[in-house]
Design a protein that fits this description.
The complex is a heterodimer.
Chain A (H helix, E strand, L loop, with lengths): L2 H41 L17 E13 L3 H13 L4 H24 L4 E13 L8 E15 L5
Antiparallel strand pairs in A: 1-3, 2-3
Chain B lengths: L18 H30 L5 H8 L11 H11 L10 E5 L6 E4 L3 E5 H6 L3 H16 L2 H18 L6 H38 L7 H10 L8 H4 L5 H15 L13 H7 L1
Parallel strand pairs in B: 1-3
Antiparallel strand pairs in B: 2-3
Helix pairs in contact in B: 1-6, 1-7, 3-5, 5-7, 6-7, 7-10, 8-10
The chains are: A alpha+beta, B mainly alpha.
């Protein structure tokens, strides 16, 4: 093999291997996460978490408090690579969609878990916030990850009022 | 009010495109775009370069008539003798020696030919050096040094124009595609320069004995151990074995003899630097 071919093999082989590994592990983790998310969504579906700003008149509230759930996500190399290609031509950055979908649902589930642990029977005024975590690289211009936070007001309700 | 415990619908927020098909579409598009741009610009440069007046080139890039180093003198004399057989030559060649062990020669704009000290030390005969230098003169005859320069600029323009500086992965792919495309043009030039050089050697000596020694040496050292594989498509130069075969075929077709007396090469560099 001449030096040019060897050089090209190194140039191409390393990143290609990294992409393949990132793709396989990323897919595996994503599938497993979705299974877990669906399972918990079914389990906690009886806990109302709604966006009302006011407590419905019919509810008799005994106690209330803040409940939060937050998750920090980062992208895998494969998704980043596909997104970097997408950013040339524009359009839906599909590779990030599933990631943020997982993050929002995970944050809501954690908030519900927080509410359940505190003994609340419902959460009202649920909000979602997203913030970017700056990376130390490139003077904070690049992104280390994204935090999705779900929060709301947990309510302890008198029995039979819901 | 009744609470309806509906589960979030799967997939409303996620486009059901397979990630690999997304990758294939985007990657294929980018590579096709870069290859088209680089190939298009290279073809445009090929049209443009012959219109550049060598006198203008000499003014822009030419070095002032410098003294020829003692160790470059035999190569300089050889270049001048070979260039006689190219009557339309507008260049005043100037040979300089570069201290590097790898045997190589390079053609720079304005007629500056750089030969490495490794090349001078390893060549056994004048005939061997003559094909290497004839090859470089061939680059001038075809204005390849300007094409190479132009393609370098085109490459930078394409990659810069796509605005990929910040996009790590995409930039790498684009750069690789652009580089491989322009290497295709480069290999074609090398073949043409080989043919031109061979004609000069034949005109000078009347035979081609010893001329292939240099290519045979690099073929023997660098290639062949792993077979051809992808190398022919990735290198800047054609494979040495292929170059020798092409040149031998040309010699046969023209009826140029492959045997004859070898001319010895003067080695003042050895006496000067070692002693």
């Amino acid at each position: 093999m001449d030096p040019a071919a060897f050089e090209a093999a190194i140039q191409l082989g390393g990143p290609l291997l990294l992409l393949t590994v990132a793709y396989i592990t990323g897919r595996f983790i994503e599938k497993r996460h979705y299974r877990d998310i669906r399972r918990r969504e079914v389990r906690w579906s009886r806990l109302p978490a709604v966006t009302f700003r006011q407590v419905p008149k019919a509810w008799e509230v005994e106690e209330c408090g803040l409940v939060t759930g937050s998750v920090v996500i980062s992208i895998d190399h494969f998704k980043r690579f596909v997104a970097s290609l997408r950013m040339i031509v524009g359009g839906r950055v599909k590779s990030y969609e599933s990631l943020l979908d997982r993050a929002r649902r995970e944050a809501l589930l954690r908030m519900k878990k927080d509410a359940i642990d505190a003994g609340y029977g419902a959460v009202v005024n649920v909000r979602l916030e997203t913030s970017r975590l700056a990376s130390a690289r490139r003077k904070g211009q690049s992104t280390a990850g994204v935090e999705v936070m779900a929060f709301g007001t947990g309510l302890k309700l008198r029995r039979s009022s819901v | 009010m009744k609470f309806d415990p509906a589960l979030p619908a799967d997939g409303v927020n996620v486009t059901p495109t397979h990630p690999l098909s997304e990758l294939g579409l985007l990657l294929g598009g980018l590579v096709a775009l870069v290859v088209l741009l680089v190939a298009g610009l290279s073809l445009a440069i090929d049209q443009l370069v012959p219109r550049i007046d060598p006198a203008l080139e000499a003014r822009l890039f030419g070095s002032e008539a410098e003294e020829v180093e003692a160790r470059a003198a035999p190569a300089q004399a050889l270049v001048e003798r070979l260039a006689v057989h190219w009557p339309e030559n507008p260049y005043a060649f100037h040979v300089e020696v570069l201290d590097a062990a790898t045997p190589n020669a390079l053609a720079f704009p304005g007629g500056r030919i750089l030969v490495t000290s490794g090349l001078l030390e390893q060549t056994k005969s004048e005939n061997e050096l003559a094909l290497v230098l004839g090859h470089e003169i061939g680059h001038y005859a075809h204005r390849d040094h300007l094409r190479g320069l132009g393609r370098g600029v085109a490459l930078a323009l394409v990659l810069g124009g796509l605005g990929l500086a910040d996009e790590g992965g995409a930039a790498g792919v684009a750069a690789l595609a652009a580089d491989l495309t322009q290497r295709g043009f480069s290999r074609e030039q090398e073949r043409d320069a080989d043919r031109f050089g061979l004609a000069l050697v034949q005109a000078e000596y009347g035979h081609l004995a010893g001329a292939f020694d240099f290519f045979e040496k690099i073929a023997h050292e660098g290639e062949g151990r792993f077979g051809h594989g992808l190398a022919p498509y990735l290198s800047t130069h054609p494979l040495s074995t292929d170059r020798i075969a092409a040149l031998r075929a040309l010699a046969r077709a023209r009826g140029w003899p492959l045997v004859g007396p070898l001319s010895p090469l003067a080695h003042p560099a050895k006496g000067g630097s070692d002693g």
